[in-house]
């Protein structure tokens, strides 16, 4: 059922009555620790994950700080860590950030929280499985932390044999088993989300009316489901070889260590898309809301999420161009790697077209999202240098690679996560945070980010290898700049921790729809009641009908916040005045 | 599907009284398996198993042996999937899931072979 | 929408029983997809090495116990039948038939594991285990023909020695030594013991992980028996049996591929 809009007789559609703040919402329904630890409410489970991954973000950040401090000096005398400790520091940074922060960040926090609400369901398909997934995550995380506290792993997060199976004297097994276990959490979450999207959509919520965040999480879950088992078997094989001293990667038996790399990257390449795709989903939601426009090219963006999900499985050996694979395989993978730039670029073009002639305001979610678009584009373009076989010979294992993936992972995904956190914070907690401080934090993060990682492209191009603590003296100035930037970045990341936490205590109470967004999740009170919706919503139109000012149930929207803070009555007008071309005086029929 | 159960179904233990309208309000018995079909499939899969063992021992390890064994195994798996795993009752998404899993394993194997079968080739040769 | 009666089996977050069943079915199939990829990694690795070392894989496979494997195959295929019949019993509300079919399935699965236990015991007794054990056994047979001090035996003397002392060395070891007699390692007809160990690694790892899945399956089936006895599986809840059944069938299907890849590669080989 599509919405037919009549312009003949404009009649103001009143915004829906503000859902009365639920006396009993999912947060205050019970306060005991057991009600949290044994919850099967997807919203509470999202909060459990939020706390857990924040701890890992902090831990991974500390490891990064150690690495960057160590790199202030270019030779052994200038280092704060021994070379062995340095290996353990960057390994810990990689393992914790990738497996215990980036992979679960949006899917397990925002996905868990929002997917049922966005599709009009009461919960995910398997609520107890959802809780189990958190416990599995915690178990894996505990093992990984134990391995770090016991001295860490020194193999790099990539764990290549034969070093990891034979020579390394570090705590490989507990760390690897921890990652293995946490992979099951990833699979459980992905499975839950996919079944929910397939079978639990509200009446009228066709695939073409799904928010793009849901499409993105669907693609992510597809990758989680199909790629994670392969890393599971790979880590198992690694552990067998390390413990029993005999394995299929052992060259003395005729085994091939590069087979490990094939198996490892079969997961780890889609894994990086598991990390970035949810962030892209967030951007689609935020950009449309803060430019008060429908997404440009809904189907292109939706299908590009599926394109990324599928094509990501065909590229992995571009991490192995110089490892010893055949030249013809390298050619094939180089060609295929170019392919994946297409759906990513489609998204960037469509986002840009969405912004064009939109009524744009610059609250923190928007700042983070705009930062995402710029930084992800730069990161993605530099990926093409690495996908090209010839240039990769020069750039492989240099800081160019490090800069590339930090641009897409941090400049892309972490920004996307923060954009989502800031966008949905009022819905999750029922509180508004400080508009001013959040904009300052976003700006500091963007500035700090550039200062940290742009110099790394330079030194990488000029040959500084990654994972090396020693480097030629002429690169020192760039490393110092990078460390200075990292300090600013760290400050920028600490700020949300402060003002978001403070908002819990003295933030302004949020209305149900402070950003005047169209999604179903905004039609519940803030914070939502335990069962999300009092009655099953019926969806009548697409997800971004900002131009005609209706939400997905066909009702009118409240006043958009305008350029000031949401909920600030003085800023309830857009830049074009109180009633610009976006006025909601259109009768909705159909 | 036509075949009467050989034992009288015992009354269920659920406390919910079934509505008078029909005695199968949730359509549970709509897709009941025919036991004869199941037994025939069982015999077929067993027969194929004995065939593959016998054939392999008879032919020995030739270049046709492995493809033959795999073809038999795929047939067996297909029968199990279609009849025992109820793909016959087919929900589109379920069938797509089953086929996708095979396809993705195929991606892994084919692209592994892209490397391992071409390692010995000399560039430009 | 369902009739006005609300089945006690219906979980509160679902709209109706049909949605619940559809979700459970799709959910287990998606989990099965992950299992296919899990074993798929192993199959991929196996493919690579079988491609590179076909002769060693065939030779190594020929020493495995095909009889036990065939019996086990019969057990598993039959257990798939009884498991499917169990779903039927559940749908018909026939509790005794449901429990009977479940117990038969569990029994067949247990019989599979018992046979597998015997099989591994025989393998260990024959010292057909990769790593130090294989190395020692092969070295012992090799040293019998090519002692570190003293003259080497001729081929005929070696054959004679092994025939007269069948308990001194394992069959696979002296067959390998005899086959490689006088051959340079670069000879295409040379059978590398290391590569044979690669095959054995696949044998133990693949059958081991498969066996673990069988044990988990038996556990789930026994849990179903317990639930059925408590009356928790009325016809509306047949879906719970179906979920376990689908898992069980996949484990069976995986075995149908392990069988030819591991046990039948060397079938029909003519030994010395």
Q: How is the secondary structure organized here?
A:
The complex is a heterotrimer of chains A (590), B (125) and C (272).
Chain A: E1 4-6, H1 33-37, H2 42-70, H3 83-119, H4 127-149, H5 163-167, H6 172-199, H7 212-244, H8 257-291, H9 298-311, H10 327-339, H11 341-355, H12 364-387, H13 389-395, H14 399-429, H15 435-461, H16 476-506, E2 587-589
Antiparallel strand pairs in A: 1-2
Helix pairs in contact in A: 2-3, 2-4, 2-16, 3-4, 3-6, 3-7, 3-8, 3-14, 4-6, 6-7, 7-8, 7-9, 8-11, 8-12, 8-14, 9-11, 11-12, 12-14, 12-15, 14-15, 15-16
Chain B: H1 35-59, H2 65-84, H3 92-116
Helix pairs in contact in B: 1-2
Chain C: H1 17-52, H2 54-62, H3 66-92, H4 95-125, H5 132-145, H6 155-164, H7 171-179, H8 193-229, H9 238-263
Helix pairs in contact in C: 1-2, 1-8, 1-9, 2-8, 3-4, 3-9, 4-8, 5-7, 8-9
Characteristics:
heterotrimer; A: 590 residues; mainly alpha; Cytochrome C Oxidase, Chain A; 16 helices; disordered N terminus; B: 125 residues
Descriptive account of the structure:
The complex is a heterotrimer of chains A (590), B (125) and C (272). Chain A is 61% helix and 1% strand. Chain A is mainly alpha-helical. In chain A, α8 packs across α14. The longest helix of chain A has 37 residues, at 83-119. Among the domains of chain B are: 33-85; 90-118. Chain B has three helices and no strands. In chain B, α1 packs antiparallel against α2 (65-84). The longest helix of chain B is centred in the middle third of the chain and has 25 residues, at 35-59. The radius of gyration of chain B is 23 Å and the shape is flat. Chain B starts with 34 loop residues before the first helix and ends in a 9-residue tail after the last helix. Chain C is mainly α and 272 residues long. Chain C has a domain at 18-130 and 195-263: Cytochrome c oxidase, subunit III, four-helix bundle (Four Helix Bundle (Hemerythrin (Met), subunit A)), CATH 1.20.120.80. Helices cover 73% and strands 0% of the residues of chain C. In chain C, α2 crosses α8 and α4 (95-125) runs antiparallel to α8. Chain C is elongated. The model of chain C has no long low-confidence stretch (mean pLDDT 94). Chains B and C meet through α1, α2 and α3 of B and α1, α3, α4 and α9 of C.
